Amino acid sequence: MSPAAAVHSAADSLGKPLAGWRLRLYSVVFESETRAGRLFDQCLIFAILASVAVVMADSVHSLNVRHQDLFATLEWGFTLLFTAEYLARLTCLRRPWRYALSFFGLVDLLAILPTYLALLVPEAHLLIDVRILRLLRMFRVLKLTAYLGEYQMLGSALLASRRKILVFLSVVLMIVLVMGTLMYVVEGPANGFTSIPTAVYWAITTMTTVGFGDITPKTDVGRLISSAMMLLGWGTLAVPTGIVTSEITAQRLQVTPTSRTCPDCLTEGLAPEAAYCQACGARLPECRRDPA
Questions:
Q1: Kindly report the CA angle at 140 between 245 and 104, in degrees rounded to 5?
Q2: β-bridge mates for residue 261, sequence order
């Protein structure tokens, strides 16, 4: 399914209004292909990033002590803004309950609910840090823009390579189990390898080149095994990347280019079913298909 077709399918499931002010509101808050919708999304992204920055700064004790009132004012401003946006999305739909129960609808609700709960139930103030989930709303904004094609391509590549990745992970699991058990036999409890699970933990951190250093081999044989694990780790990191990259390349080769061009900005290669230009947001003339 092309990006434009996916957006239109989502609009049908939510109950896109047919006419009137609700349709105009829908074109702003849901249709990011339009100029107004694109401007709305840009403002929304800025508000999301700013609100997350406030949440993070508020968690710093020294900043909280000095700017507590400022943070509280900004937080309520963002909460009221996101509340108005949430209500606008519900109002303009013919089936608002579908949006309210969808993943992004629940994320939008969780973005505003903690602030109100902290006001009504002071004991729930610890839940206010759930506001960081507002960052997830970025995916909804990006999903409805020109990046949707890339999202679909990456998802298709991961889905197509799932068996290869599963085989790769199975091999990695066998390696860390065997090498961890071997290190348990070589080093033993005296050198910190108190059990096979502990040795497997060491094998995982070594193979992924993390190496916390809380457990280190002391014997020459153990160091030799550790060196081999490190070199093996560098090689294994490239395997899943190569698998997914090859699938993405295959997905790109399957895309059929079109000669459809935007009359406003002259962007080429637009999808036949696209209603708006993905570059400038201008409405496109109807695509005429040649009879078969």
A1: 120
A2: 268
CATH of 159-254, one of 1.10.287.70, 3.40.50.300, 3.30.420.40, 1.10.10.10: 1.10.287.70
Q: What is the DSSP string of 139-198?
A: HHHHHTSTTHHHHHHHHHHHHHTHHHHHHHHHHHHHHHHHHHHHHHHHH-GGGT--SHHH
Q: Which contacts (CB < 8 Å, 24+ apart) does range 6-13 have?
A: 6/148, 6/152, 7/31, 7/33, 7/144, 7/148, 8/273, 8/275, 13/95, 13/98
d(CA 229, CA 112) in angstroms, rounded, equals: 47
pLDDT in tens, 56-74: 898 888 998 899 899 989 9
pLDDT value for 292? 44
pLDDT in tens, 147-174: 666 777 788 888 888 898 899 899 999 9
